[in-house]
Amino acid sequence: MHLRFRFNKSGKVRFTSHRDVARIWERVLRRAGLPLAYSEGFSPRPRLSFGLALSTGYESDAEYLDARLREPIDFHDLPERLSALLPVGMDVTGVVEIPSSADSLQQAVTSCRWEVDVIGVDEQIAAEAVARALAATEIVVTRERKGKQVTDDLRPGVLALDVLEPTESGCRLAAELGTQPRALRPAELLNALEPRLEALVVRRTHQWITAGDERCEPLAIAPSPATSNIEVS
Amino acid sequence: MQAPSHAPHKVAWLFTYPDTYEIGLPNQGLQILYEIVNERDDAVAERSYAPWTDLEAELRQRDMPLFSVDTHRPARAFDILAFNLSAELTYTNLLNCIDLAGVPIRSAERRADDPIIAVGGHCTYNPEPIADFVDIVALGDGEELVGDITEVVRDWKASGRTDGSRENLLRELAQIPGVYCPSLYDVSYDGEFLAEVTPRYPDVPAVVEKRTVADLAEWPYPKNQLVPLTEVVHDRLNVEVFRGCTRGCRFCQAGMITRPVRERPADQVRTMIQNGLERTGYDEVSLTSLSTADYSDVQRVVEETIDDPANCGQVSVALPSLRVDAFTVNVAAKIKSARRTGLTFAPEAGTWRMRQVINKLIREEDLYGAVESAYSQGWRRMKLYFLTGLPTETDEDTAGIAELARNCVKIGKQYNKSASVTVSVGGYVPKPFTPFQWFGQNTVDELHRKIGLLRDETRRAKGVQMKWHDPKATLIEGIMSRGDRRLGPVIEEVWRKGGVFQEWSEHFAYDLWIDTMAKHGLSVDWYVHRHRTEPEVLPWDHLSAGLHKDFLWQDWRDALAEVGLPDCRWTPCYDCGACTGYGIEHIVASATPPAGGSQGTGQDLTGGASVPVTLSPRPSVGSLT
Ligand code: SF4
């Protein structure tokens, strides 16, 4: 049986890395007693696959995990059970069974929507930077890769970009950024747009699978009333 | 995890490991005490770790103090800052943490409202180099000590912590067996030699004895091992199967100071493993001790753990300290989850002669048997640990290390073309409360020469890799290991000049140490390289790890005479003092030695009392090279 979980990550736990999150999940699934399927070979690992890595420090409403089980289970109460075992700031918001033939998350997801709280600039400057970006035919950056300078055009990856609203210390941007062939990261884009744009909080709100005119989430959930950042500690 | 709850009547402990979170979190000693204290109604415990240099800079820039990781409480808000000292090179971090806490680093400058600075752990068997900076030193097992200390501090708090009451508090703490308060002792010197360490009050003990928990079964801790969200060292469930070791390896301080052997009952071990795996979600459990293959029920525990139907997924067992014999390899082979990349053995020395001197009685056949058994069962890589710079070591002994390694590879090639051996060599540092406490440590040059010799010997040997520990770090560790109170200002100055995280090669400041020693008129040669004589007053003579000094001296003479001393778990007692002095004894499940003899060497132990313990005196220790 293949299950797909959706979960969020916010608050202090956002400082755990992608690798840490994978290990947290392994332990939680074992504590919950799920009949995980293991890989073969010298050091068998549970067969889990995570989607696109979330940079350390970013928050998310839309993280996914696919897990293979040895046998079918009743999973309707899993979100609650797993959330109780996960660290504060990580909660499971949905679970579905997926066909064993389903594309991996890495292959399937085509874009992510982000909300970025930037500081140090007012709405005006941010709006100008956004307008410049949208008007540009290319946004060329050079970066170092394996010791070599390579140039990249970021523009095709910018599917949508907007200033949402002012915040206490700056403003909030929304961006939909492509993930194929390479996932464009919000920080990269900000840097290329306007070096003064400093991201305070970056939050992945959606991962999208687009095919033609259709688009859907890997696992849709009913919109929840404003996600809260409040932590109990 | 439940947040620790503070209250005015509670004694608040901040358990601090003076190195990074990644290194410090798994420390079992701190986790055990953290749990025991939090179970009390009159106390509460939190944890802290040394901030890395980047975080320290941020804290200092913003005028923020060291804080607890549990509830982000400032360190000064705790009554006791308790540090675990397991390595001498962390001493400057200790000072840094005290300073970051906003507490005066010198004990003499602290007032009634300052927290008590306490230290425990293996280094504290010679706490003299840091005597000026700590208020109390806890010697030995901490399980009972934390309770005793809590009670005294609780009453002091209730009495209002009045000005000037600090010295009285320390006097009262000094009444607790196992608690040493350095400031209550006067130290006098006779030229460069230590003359006397005497208590300043009649009610303060002249010799402080270590504390020993008689029965580990009464302390099944940690019950709720902490599971870090980020990766740390030893990231797995740890269950202590026994404490103490009587193999009597003469270089090994841990073995000497933790006697006698106290095994945890196998059923309790199994319960701790089951509950631990369930609560943590780990898939690996390490059975910890100084020599886990010696645990009476090791085979049963390993088998039952691996085959437990209640396991969720595959569980593997780690045996951190393998004994060098085929029996051990066969137990390891049961761990079929097959994390079979490498096995580690510690023959410690290259020749039988040298191993008799250090009392690591492993014959070459034992090593080759173990290695053959491992290669034949699918392992491809072996790691062999050795020490160099041991007493009486000749170049032949050093070269013997390479010879052993080459032969192991040869055996491995019969089973696997890619068989390899990694030789890991550390420079030997003599430690207090061992028979080698009188031995003059090798110089940096000499250690470099020996390592060079080994590199030449192994360079052309296919399949043998060599790794070694920096002899300069070995030297600085040696200064502190057997140092006295005159080193306090040196440690302070190195810390003030930024010498923190000295265990980390990128921060290690060798020249700073050497220059500071010279500046304070202290001779490295005198502290480190000089052989001590029998009548010399040692800086830790007013402390006791249970071992009689004359036992250690005799064992030193035996070492020089190349006489081995079999394990006293089953053979007659040598009256070292660890049991006899405290009216306790070994707790082992079986009254007879395991198959293969106590050292796993097939040594004939049936002779019992006829085990040779005769002494053949040598003319002069000073003539050693
Ligand atoms: S007192 Fe005797 S039995 Fe106990 S550890 Fe010492 S030598 Fe061994």
H/I helix tally of chain A: 5
Strand order of the largest sheet of chain B: 2-1-3-4-5-6
**CATH homolog superfamily of the largest domain in chain B:** tm_1862 like domain
The stretches of 5 or more residues of chain A where confidence is low (pLDDT under 50) are 224-233
CATH fold name of the largest domain in chain A: Alpha-Beta Plaits
Kindly give the count of domains of chain A: 2
Task: Output the radius of gyration of chain B.
Answer: 24 Å
Structural class of chain B: alpha/beta
Oligomer classification? heterodimer
In one word, what is the shape of chain A?
Answer: globular
Distance between the termini of chain B: 56 Å
| CA distance, first residue to last residue of chain A | 36 Å
Number of extended strands of chain A = 11
Provide key terms for this protein.
heterodimer; A: 233 residues; alpha+beta; Alpha-Beta Plaits; 2 domains; 9-stranded mixed beta sheet; two-stranded antiparallel ribbon; globular; disordered C terminus; B: 625 residues; alpha/beta; Rossmann fold; pyruvate-formate lyase- activating enzyme; 6-stranded mixed beta sheet; 4-stranded parallel beta sheet; 19 helices; 19 strands; 31% helix; binds iron/sulfur cluster
3D structure, described in words:
The complex is a heterodimer of chains A (233) and B (625). Chain A is an alpha+beta fold. Chain A folds into 2 domains: 2-102 and 218-231, 2-Layer Sandwich (Alpha-Beta Plaits); 108-211, Alpha-Beta Plaits (2-Layer Sandwich). Chain A is 20% helix and 37% strand. Chain A has helices spanning 18-31, 78-85, 105-108, 123-135, 186-193, and strands spanning 2-9, 48-50, 59-68, 90-98, 111-119, 140-145, 148-153, 158-166, 170-178, 198-211, 214-216. In chain A, a hairpin with a 2-residue loop joins β10 and β11. The longest helix of chain A has 14 residues, at 18-31. Chain A is globular and about 55 Å long. The two termini of chain A are 36 Å apart. Mean pLDDT of chain A is 89; it is low at 224-233. In chain B, α12 (364-376) packs parallel to α13. The radius of gyration of chain B is 24 Å and the shape is globular. The model of chain B is unreliable at 604-625 (pLDDT under 50). Chain B has 2 domains: 11-185, Cobalamin-binding domain (Rossmann fold, 3-Layer(aba) Sandwich); 234-475 and 508-551, pyruvate-formate lyase- activating enzyme. Chain B is α/β, with parallel strands linked by helices and 625 residues long. The longest helix of chain B has 19 residues, at 395-413. Chain B has a 6-stranded mixed β-sheet, with helices on both faces. Chain B has helices at residues 21-24, 28-38, 53-61, 91-100, 145-158, 166-173, 253-257, 266-280, 298-307, 326-333, 352-357, 364-376, 395-413, 444-459, 471-481, 488-496, 510-519, 524-529, 549-560, and strands at 11-17, 43-49, 80-84, 116-120, 136-138, 179-180, 185-190, 193-199, 208-209, 237-240, 242-243, 262-263, 284-288, 316-318, 342-348, 381-388, 420-427, 464-468, 543-544. Chains A and B meet through α1 of A and α8 of B. The complex binds iron/sulfur cluster. Residues 246, 259-260, 568, 573-580 of chain B line the site of iron/sulfur cluster.
